[in-house]
């Protein structure tokens, strides 16, 4: 972890010795050296530059008043508290403390002059302040001439102490400019020193609103620099990985050509473009680090299969890893269906295969007789060895943790790293992609295979469930198939299971003429696989499911998707689920059953999914509704979190940050080092693998 690493560094000048209470409190705030204090910026500001006459203080607003203590006593009713009356020339107010120290009582001795800062309220006895901050003052003592910063802090470290520390850091640390002058001029940004001073000690005439909303030019400067550093560190990580050696896999076009010729369809232009990009990367002797992004149903699997064949053509191994057993098995079937006719063997590895079968498969991979493998994370678990592994494909990459991706990467043959192809069906808006995938090359499948009829989406209140059951009957009697997805019940997996079982029973009873199946997370893997296979083969017409079918499942004959309690699902999930239909030529329908009353966001989400079918647009709306924080699981992806910049409001700074990052990396590596040291210290290790 970065913290311990930093703790081992020699203390910087003027830094409290490690192990002291102060040092550990600072460490809690992730402050480890003077430089960190410079970038520990205020949350907000308080205006102590002015005194408000008590008579004109407005209830509900913070104010600073100054007056003489008329009385101060401990009362016991309604509960023990310290109550003081303070008066100035204009009026009087009551100050109250429910928790107080004897020292506070002394501070408020009758006749003393004090300044109180706090929110004024209209109380029972007239104006009052509860728990105001107090400062004893002399007659006519001067007021501060700048807004008072309020910092994020932690227990045991008061604002005053923190302010002093920051003040000292500002005096000790050289505030060197890290950005080229022409960039500052172009973007109209202030210099670094000017910006941090403006934020820590705002000028008396600074606009408090602009400071608080963080759209003050000083904030813009800091946010720009933060985004720049994010780009720099991601690009550096990219370059570092690129410096490794990988097996160069020439595009021999023997097997790939044969596969293309045998397919019942031609590649879309987007697939062909992605394939060219990947083929070119694979032919290089440094590892590919590419993300293949494409909406649900855009046909990523065939592109991955072609890449795997390029490895096989060269006599090297390739593995495809999927996040669930169902998906892994489906990929296996698809790949085997395409490749067995070409005489290429595909191995299937999952945690649940019987030991004997597993051993046979492992031996064939180990010996290199079998070149291609598909599996779940079982693939990266130890004894699985693919001594000639040259390409790793990771489907639904966001489902895997950093560690799992790392493990796969380290499986390369004799010190060489495998080429990595990540796949994702979670489209994300451009601004987010620029920050989250800045350390990858990206190929986008921006069109769907032809011949798909668009999916119609219906919103139906749960009072009309019977009608929906009728729709299911109709569709299935016409030879189609249907999914019925049960609600997510976050509080309880048991409850979720129960609902699925009940729904299954209801549907069996209501649709005696149809064969209904049930699939959920508690089933054993081979039971799940058998049910999925029966549905894929058309033996089951209706599949009642929990969200286990969310990702990747491909049964083209299914044309009806029913989602219960759709208001409980996230947008990305609804989009994924809806994408399970509309994969064949039949007109498909997605029925979203919702329960009243709808929450504000529930309604907003349903509106978005009703109005949009394009994954990128849905992602954009999603970002708007819930903000980027929880969007792609930033923590899990390992991308350094942004402290100040926000992808929502500062999207326009990202493009220039990226452009400058490229320029600095090319022209001024020393400047890059300085910027990264300033922002990250020794935290670079957080970067994504
Ligand atoms: P996803 O991108 O969601 O993983 P898949 O790879 O599962 O999509 O492909 C969805 C379906 O479209 C599959 O049945 C696949 O065989 C089919 N498909 C892929 N490419 C094409 C194409 N160019 N033309 C027609 N069908 C295609
Ligand atoms: Mg897929």
From TrEMBL:
ATP-binding recorded as keyword: yes
Domain Helicase C-terminal: 478-624
Swiss-Prot/TrEMBL keywords: ATP-binding, DNA damage, DNA recombination, DNA repair, DNA-binding, Helicase, Hydrolase, Isomerase, Nucleotide-binding
GO terms of biological process kind: DNA recombination; DNA repair
Residue stretches spanning the membrane: none
Superkingdom of origin: Bacteria
UniProt enzyme class: isomerase
Catalysed transformations (reactions): ATP + H2O = ADP + phosphate + H(+); Couples ATP hydrolysis with the unwinding of duplex DNA by translocating in the 3'-5' direction
InterPro entries: ATP-dep_DNA_helicase_RecG, DEAD/DEAH_box_helicase_dom, Helicase_ATP-bd, Helicase_C-like, NA-bd_OB-fold, P-loop_NTPase, RecG/Mfd, RecG_dom3_C
Molecular-function annotations in GO: 3'-5' DNA helicase activity; ATP binding; ATP hydrolysis activity; DNA binding
Record domain Helicase ATP-binding: where: 281-445
Classification via CDD domains: DEXHc_RecG, RecG_wedge_OBF
Nucleotide-binding among keywords: yes
Pfam families: DEAD, Helicase_C, RecG_dom3_C, RecG_wedge
E.C. code: 5.6.2.4
Membership in a protein family: Belongs to the helicase family. RecG subfamily.
UniProt function note: Plays a critical role in recombination and DNA repair. Helps process Holliday junction intermediates to mature products by catalyzing branch migration. Has replication fork regression activity, unwinds stalled or blocked replication forks to make a HJ that can be resolved. Has a DNA unwinding activity characteristic of a DNA helicase with 3'-5' polarity.
The name this protein goes by in its record: ATP-dependent DNA helicase RecG
Organism for this UniProt entry: Parazoarcus communis SWub3 = DSM 12120
Lineage of source species: Bacteria, Pseudomonadati, Pseudomonadota, Betaproteobacteria, Rhodocyclales
């Amino acid at each position: 972890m970065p913290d311990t690493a930093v703790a081992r560094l020699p203390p910087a000048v003027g830094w409290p010795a490690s192990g002291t209470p102060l040092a550990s409190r600072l460490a809690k705030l992730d402050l480890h050296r003077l430089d960190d204090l410079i970038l520990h910026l205020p949350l907000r500001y308080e205006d102590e530059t002015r005194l408000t006459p008590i008579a004109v203080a407005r209830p509900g607003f913070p104010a600073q008043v100054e007056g003489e203590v008329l009385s101060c006593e401990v009362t016991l009713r309604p509960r023990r508290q310290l109550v003081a009356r303070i008066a100035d020339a204009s009026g009087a107010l009551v100050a109250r403390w429910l928790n107080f120290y004897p020292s506070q009582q002394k501070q408020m001795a009758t006749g003393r002059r004090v300044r109180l800062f706090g929110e004024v309220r209209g109380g029972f006895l007239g104006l009052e302040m509860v728990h105001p901050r107090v400062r004893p003052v002399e007659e006519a003592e001067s007021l501060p001439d700048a807004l008072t910063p309020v910092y994020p802090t932690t227990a045991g470290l008061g604002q005053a102490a923190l302010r002093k520390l920051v003040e000292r850091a500002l005096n000790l640390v050289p505030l060197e400019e890290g950005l080229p002058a022409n960039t500052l001029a172009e973007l109209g940004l202030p210099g670094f020193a000017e910006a941090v001073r403006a934020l820590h000690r705002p000028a008396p005439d600074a606009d408090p609103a602009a400071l608080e909303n963080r759209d003050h030019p000083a904030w813009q400067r800091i946010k720009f620099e933060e985004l720049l550093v994010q780009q720099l560190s991601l690009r550096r990580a990219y370059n570092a990985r690129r410096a490794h050696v990988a097996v160069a896999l020439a595009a021999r076009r023997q097997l790939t050509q044969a596969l293309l010729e045998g397919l019942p369809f031609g590649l879309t232009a987007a697939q062909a473009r992605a394939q060219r990009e990947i083929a070119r990367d694979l032919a290089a002797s440094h590892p590919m680090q590419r993300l293949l992004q494409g909406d649900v149903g855009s046909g990523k699997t065939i592109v991955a299969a072609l890449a795997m064949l390029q490895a096989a053509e060269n006599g090297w191994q390739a593995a495809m890893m999927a996040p669930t057993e169902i998906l892994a098995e489906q990929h296996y079937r698809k790949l085997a269906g395409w490749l067995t006719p070409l005489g290429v063997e595909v191995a299937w590895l999952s945690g649940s295969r019987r030991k004997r079968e597993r051993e046979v498969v492992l031996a064939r991979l180990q010996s290199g007789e079998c070149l291609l493998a598909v599996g779940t994370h079982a693939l990266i678990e130890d004894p699985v060895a693919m001594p000639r592994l040259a390409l790793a494909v990771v489907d639904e990459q966001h489902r895997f943790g950093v560690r799992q991706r790392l493990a796969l990467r380290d499986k390369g043959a004799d010190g060489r790293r495998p080429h990595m192809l990540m796949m994702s069906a979670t489209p994300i808006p451009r601004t987010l992609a620029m920050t989250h995938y800045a350390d990858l090359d990206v190929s986008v499948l921006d069109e769907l295979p032809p011949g798909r009829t668009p999916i119609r989406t219906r919103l139906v209140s749960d009072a009309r469930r019977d009608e929906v059951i009728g729709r299911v009957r109709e569709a299935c009697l016409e030879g189609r198939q249907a999914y019925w997805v049960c609600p997510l019940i976050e509080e309880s997996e048991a409850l979720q299971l129960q609902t699925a079982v009940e729904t299954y029973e209801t549907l069996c009873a209501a649709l005696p003429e149809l064969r209904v199946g049930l699939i959920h997370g508690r089933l054993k893997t081979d039971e799940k696989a058998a049910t999925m296979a029966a549905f894929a083969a058309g033996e089951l017409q209706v599949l009642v499911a929990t969200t286990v079918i969310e990702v990747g499942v491909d049964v083209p004959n299914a044309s009806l998707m029913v989602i219960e309690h759709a208001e409980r699902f996230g947008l990305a999930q609804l989009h994924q689920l809806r994408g399970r239909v509309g994969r064949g030529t039949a007109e498909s329908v997605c029925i979203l059953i919702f329960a009243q009353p709808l929450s504000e966001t529930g309604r907003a989400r349903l509106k978005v999914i009703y109005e949009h079918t394009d994954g990128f647009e849905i992602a954009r709306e999603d970002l708007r509704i819930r903000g980027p924080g929880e969007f792609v699981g930033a923590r899990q992806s390992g991308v350094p979190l942004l402290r100040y910049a926000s992808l929502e409001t500062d999207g326009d700074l990202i493009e220039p940050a990226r452009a400058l990052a490229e320029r600095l990396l090319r022209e001024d590596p020393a400047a890059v080092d300085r910027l990264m040291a300033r922002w990250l210290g020794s935290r670079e290790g957080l970067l994504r693998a």
